[in-house]
Amino acid sequence: MFEQLNKPEETTRISVAMTLGILATYLIGAFGGLCLFLFLEDRPFGTQIATVMVYTYFVFWFTFFPTRGMPEQYSLQSKTVQRQIPRLLTIHCACLTLILLEQTVLFAAKRHLPSYWLTKHKDPRGTLYDCVLLASSGVVFFSQVLFSRRILSRSVKEDSCESPTYLQK
């Protein structure tokens, strides 16, 4: 048992093919999300429907596949990961509710905001209103991804410590 304390942790290596595949998937998702927002923009609740679909797509990819700085990959075929799916779905529903509530409040408040919030200035990122909308959604997104990956990481680590092969050593 003590000999494992001195072992350096193994880092997972990501192949070039996997990196290119994940990049292609992100780009396809970004293009599809942009098209979805443009297509549903003028429809009732179109922005909210597009948000749910695009948000869920990217949360799935950022949670289960390796990204820069988070090289761990979690397989949906793993029993350990499958046991955590209800918890992850609950967290996802709570975050979606928070984002949709935030959008509803900001959309309702848009009429009452000063023109400064809705005017494009020299800032290339858009209006202050758009920046607040995107930044608040981004905070919820990355919080959910980091929280979900932490849950998966702990459950995989606990499961590997309790496995029969570990106890036999």
Give your account of this protein's structure.
The structure is a single chain. This protein has helices at residues 16-40, 46-64, 79-109, 115-118, 128-162, 164-168. The relative contact order is 0.10. It is an all-alpha fold.
Key terms:
mainly alpha; 70% helix; elongated; 169 residues
Shape annotation? elongated
Computed over alpha carbons, the radius of gyration is: 20 Å
- Helix share of residues? over 70%
**Contiguous helical run count:** 6
| Series of H and E elements | HHHHHH
- Average pLDDT level: 84
SSE class:
mainly alpha
Q: Give the total of domains.
A: 1
What are the segments in which pLDDT stays under 50 over at least 5 consecutive residues? Answer: none
Instruction: Give the distance, in angstroms, between the N- and C-terminal Cα atoms.
Output: 8 Å
Number of strands: 0
What is the gist of this entry?
With 169 residues, this protein is mostly helical. The longest helix has 35 residues. The radius of gyration is 20 Å and the shape is elongated.
Could you give the topology of this structure?
Elements lengths: L15 H25 L5 H19 L14 H31 L5 H4 L9 H35 L1 H5 L1
